Amino acid sequence: MILPGCNSQDLGYRVSKLLNAEMCRVEFKRFPDGELYVRVLSDVKDRDVYVISTQHNQNDAIVESILISDALEDEGANTIHLVAPYLAYARQDKKFNKGEPISIRALGKMYSHIYDSIYTVNPHETHIESFFTVPFIYGDAIPKIGKYFLNKLNNPVVLSPDKGAVKMAKTVSEILNCEYDYLEKVRLSPTEIKIHPKNLDVNGNDVLIVDDIISTGGTMATAIKMLKESGANKIVAACVHPLLIGDALNKLYMAGANEVIGTDTYISEVSRISVDTVIANMIKNE
Questions:
Q1: Residues 231-241 pLDDT 10s
Q2: In sequence order, what are the residues at sequence separation of 6 or more whose Cβ sits closer than 8 angstroms to the Cβ of residue 92?
């Protein structure tokens, strides 16, 4: 059975159709004091239930996942699985200062007690798997980004924002049958930096910049501006998780981006690519 979280009702429905699985009816509401209420209305006894809940409103989604798991256990579900296409706190994966928690480790301990497995899409760091004592399965939405842009760009070049993400650019470039590179940051002075492709000349090319997350958009905006100055034609910024905090989207367009595209792991106004098949395939293959 597929149980859609409050913010993943459409995604949950599409995954259920791909898997030919029954949808679970669940009620959500909020009490006047802000506390959450969930109620599982379908018969889940002896069923394997997959809770699809993207955690873009992080704290509410975490509480919701706890309450749903408790309700499903009480109602006799056979196994309970959390599918969080965007996994909240996953970027808080290490300690920088004394006294800090490793937040995803703390959540990993909790999830491992109340769920039989955890699924996500393109976690920022894959080593967080070690914080879970149940199976931690992650899918890759980067190929879907590549397929989305097939035949939509002229003479394209694919770039990653840094060397660490160059595998993403390579994956997309193979789908688009074009060259790829990564952006290199060069400090010209204490206050001035230059960002440019390490090896390629983008003059006259359409450029697709691919990353897993666009958050505040600051570095991406600087890169877009400099790519424009280098003679790039159309510039598109694409990512799996379009957090786009504050005025990030405006920042990218003002820098010269022609288009910003993301997936529906994190619901935003640029979420035009669905990870429904990525999730369905993960569930099907386990």
A1: 999 999 999 99
A2: 101, 102, 103, 104
Q: Are strands 235-242 and 259-263 parallel, antiparallel or unpaired?
A: parallel
Instruction: Indicate which residues carry an active-site annotation.
Output: 185
Q: Are 35 and 7 in contact (CB under 8 A)?
A: no
3-state secondary structure of 276: helix
For 10, what's the count of Cα atoms within 13 Å in the CB-facing half-sphere?
7
What is 235-272 written as a DSSP string?
EEEEEEEE---TTHHHHHHHHT-SEEEEETTS--TTEE
Check if the beta carbon of residue 153 is closer than 8 Å to that of residue 129: no
Q: Which residues contact 68 (CB under 8 A, 6 or more apart)?
A: 3, 5, 26, 38, 40, 51, 53
How far is C-alpha 64 from the geometric centre of its chain's CA atoms? 19
One DSSP character per residue, 98-143 reads TT---HHHHHHHHHHHH-SEEEEES-S-GGGGGG-SS-EEEE--HH
Q: Give residue-wise pLDDT tens across range 249-276.
A: 999 999 999 999 999 999 999 999 999 9
For 167-224, where are the E strands, in sequence order? Answer: 179-189, 192-197, 206-214
- What confidence score (pLDDT) does residue 187 get? 65
As a whole number of angstroms, the distance between CA 114 and CA 82 comes to 9
CB-based contact 82:118 (threshold 8 Å): yes
